[in-house]
Amino acid sequence: MKTIHISIPDMQSAHCQTRVQNAFDSIEGVTVNEIKAGQASIALNDGQQQADVTAAIEKAGYTVADITAEDNTASATLSFKTNINCGGCVASVRPALDGNSGIAEWEVDTTGKDKILTVKTAGATPEDVINTVKDAGFKIEPVL
Description:
The chain is α+β, with helices and mostly antiparallel strands. The protein has helices at about 15-25, 50-60, 85-100, 125-135; strands at about 1-5, 30-35, 40-45, 65-70, 75-80, 105-110, 115-120, 140. The chain folds into two domains: about 1-70, Alpha-Beta Plaits (2-Layer Sandwich), CATH 3.30.70; about 75-140, Alpha-Beta Plaits (2-Layer Sandwich), CATH 3.30.70.100. About 30% of the residues lie in helices and about 30% in strands.
């Protein structure tokens, strides 16, 4: 998830702010953090584009003067015990792990006793990783 700050100089009154709020509400994956005269701060889910936000503001009748973005995705390295124990298992789980946009990198030690899955996140929570692996048909539990 990333936060963007938008300068909207012609959005001044409460009425204007409500129109822009309604424009944001029409976009799936957008969370409004703050709207005040001339500015808005919103959070975008992964995959949501700034161009969609700009188009919605312009459709509501306002001008976007500037957009600045800050990336506030959490990054961490997580470890899990699994039953991913061979190359075939790795090949089976690969599409699920590679398809999770919250996972930056991952690897499984198939030679060790506990078959440790190490994940470098790009915003995924431990629960996201656990659900992804379970949905692919494997057992998984956090390393304590």
